[in-house]
Amino acid sequence: MTMIFAHRGYSAKFPENTMKAFIEAEKAGADALEIDVQLTKDGEVVIIHDEKVDRVTNGQGYVKELTYKELRKLDAGFHTTSKKEPIPSLEEFFEWLSMNRLICNIELKNNLIPYEGMEEKVIEMVRKYNLSNRIIISSFNHYSIVYSYRIAPEIEIAPLYSQRLYMPWVYAKSIRAKGIHPKLNTVTDEMIRVSIESGIQVRPYTVNKEADLKWLLSIRCSALITDEPEKALKIRQQIKPLK
Ligand code: G3P
Ligand code: CA
Fold it and tell me: Residue ranges of the GP-PDE domain (predicted)?
């Protein structure tokens, strides 16, 4: 069965990467979540997509130049009718994740800013909450996921990429990844089939259109990452996968 990952939580309906979006994705029945992490000035791992707070909050500036206390005052739900939604810390998120069964893909956002010590901090927290078997660490920074695997081989890693790779299943195996996270427009039926047959899970992002959801669900792609978990779940219930 194709697993449904709610991208930044249930981000089509709720402020992305907030506890509200995560809780609503779980309520909707998603199998898993995808979250993005950055580091504050004082080294807290926080869940936010951009390097700057400008787009998703009522504040301004780089996450790396704000302390956690300063960042917590901002509202990530300011552009919606939702009540104030703070930027969550990874720890706060894990407190909640420990109480459910969801799988979680943590995307390390260290491809633009090479946050020193980010891998160690994330891994320490995963171990503290005993979540190793429910976490997949991904990044566009493949050096970082390989480093993560070196220090925590018990946690799954998956490379993210946005351009077509030649035989990505071979590349994945070479770095000990068990899955790949390709941009939707780089995947084909053949590439998905061969990857899965080679033992590599394929989890394309970001799949929101009905036709794309139907396609990936019908060919039993391993998983898909979507802003629209409810829509994806509905289609999954309706369609009969192709043999
Ligand atoms: O992890 C899949 C996807 O989230 C990668 O791109 O920019 O949405 O973080 P982006
Ligand atoms: Ca992401």
Answer: 2-236
pTM above 0.90, yes or no: yes
Whether the per-residue pLDDT at 181 is higher than 80: the answer is yes
The boundaries of the domain holding residue 128 are 3-238
In short, whether 107's Cβ falls inside 6 Å of ligand 1 is yes
In a domain, 72, yes or no: yes
Q: State in Å: Cα 144 to ligand 2 middle.
A: 15
In a domain? residue 148: yes
Crossing angle of the two packed helices 229-238 and 19-28, in degrees rounded to 10? 10
**DSSP H/E element including 38:** strand 32-39
Q: Provide the CATH number for the domain around residue 11.
A: 3.20.20.190
- Please state, in angstroms and as integers, the Cα–Cα distance from residue 239 to each residue in 46, 207, 211, 231, following that order: 37, 16, 12, 12
User: Is 139 among the domain residues?
Assistant: yes
Contact 200, 180 (CB under 8 A): yes
In a mutational test of the pocket of ligand 1, which residue from 205, 224, 226 has the highest number of ligand atoms less than 8 Å from its CB? 205
**pLDDT confidence of residue 80:** 78
Average of per-residue pLDDT across 39-43: 98
Check pocket membership of 16 for ligand 1, CB cut-off 6 A. Answer: no
243 Cα: distance to centroid of ligand 2 (angstroms): 31
